[in-house]
Amino acid sequence: MTIATKMAAAIQSSSWIRRMFEEGAELKARLGAANVFDFTLGNPDLEPPAKVKEALLAAIQDPRPGLHGYMPNAGLPATRQAVADHLSAVHGVAFAADDIIMTCGAAGALNVILKALLDPWDEVIVLAPFFPEYLFYVENHGGVVRVVETDQDFQPVIARIEEAINDHTRAVIINSPNNPTGQVYDASLLGALGEMLANHSRRFGRPIYLINDEPYRRLVYDDVVVPSVFQAYPESLVATSFSKDLSLPGERLGYIALNPQAQGRQELLAAMILANRILGFVNAPALLQRAITSLMDTAVDITPYVRRRELFCRLLAEGGYDFVRPKGAFYLFPRSPLDDDVAFVQALKEENILAVPGRGFGRPGYFRLAFCVPESTIVAAAPGFARVMAKVRP
Q: 15-38 as b/e, with b when 16 or more CB fall inside 10 Å?
C-alpha cells in the first residue's frame, strides 16, 4: 500500500457531503448545470458585502513595509483586540486581546483546540446530528469520539450527555446554530449543560471543556437569539469563522475565543498558540486579518436566505415531507420517507436532485438540503421532490 492504512480507511469513510458534491459535478458535466438541482454543499452563494471588498483593497494598498511577513502565532494584536471588543459587546463578558487566537477558519480553530487538550484516548462527546469532519478532527489528535443523540427536535438531552461522561471525557463539542439541522440550542439547556459539566469537572479534578462551533451565529431567523456559551459555563471556548456571515469560505479566516473565566487560562492559551504553529498553520492569513479589523459589525444581508427558507419549507410541506423548521444556518434536515436514507437520496438523484444522506451526519433516516442556492433551483426541483415522494410513500 502506498499510503497510510489510517488514511486509506479515511478515504473509504470520507464525508458524504464531498462524495455527493463530486457525483453532482459529474452529473452537471453530462446534463448541464441548469438541469441538476444541487443542494449538497453549504457554500454561500451570496457575494461578500461591499465593505469587505473596500477593506481588502485598503489592506492591499497600504504602503507600509512588512505587512505580508510572519507575525505572532496568535495573530495581529489589532485584529485580536477588535475581535475581543466585539465579543465583549455580544456576550456581556470582558474579553481581552489575549483571549483570542486567529486561525485558518473554524476547522483550524477546532484542530488547534483539540491538539491543546487531548492526550491519547481522551474522549470528546459530539451531539448527533453533527458536522462529519468532527470525527476526523478528534482522531487527528489521538482522541476518541462518543456520539450522543439529540431529541426529536434536535435539542440536547442532558441526561444522555451525562451518561456518556467518564474520567476520560475531555470536551463536549456543540454546534449551534447547527449544521445539518438549522436548530439553535435553548439557553436553558445550555445552562443545565454547563451546570452538569461543572459538577463532573469537580468530580474528576480537571475541566471538561464546552466547545461551540458557531460560524452560523449571525444567520438566524424569526428574531431568534443565539444564547452565549460563555454565559452558560466558564470552561468554554468558541471556534468560529467569517466564512458564512461574510461569505468568505475560501479565504480561511477564523478565531478561537477562550472564556476569560476559564481555569488555567494562561496555560491553555499558550498550548493553543503553540498548536497553531506546530500543526502547520503558523498564523492566519495576514491580509484578511488586517481587512477584518474594520468589519466586526458587518455581515451579509440574509434576506435571500429568509426567502429561500420560506420557499423551500412551503414546497417540501406541500410535497408531504416531514421536517423541523430551521431557526438558523442554511440547511433543512427532513426525515427520509424510506428507512434507508441512502436509497432515498439515490431516488432523488434519479430526478437530478442532489442531497446528502443523514447517516453522513450521524443520523440515519434523514437527509440534508442546503438552501444557499438560487430560488430558481428550489422552484425547479419541486416537481422532482413531489414525484419521488409519490413513488416511495407507502
A: bbbeebbeebeebbeeeeeeebbb
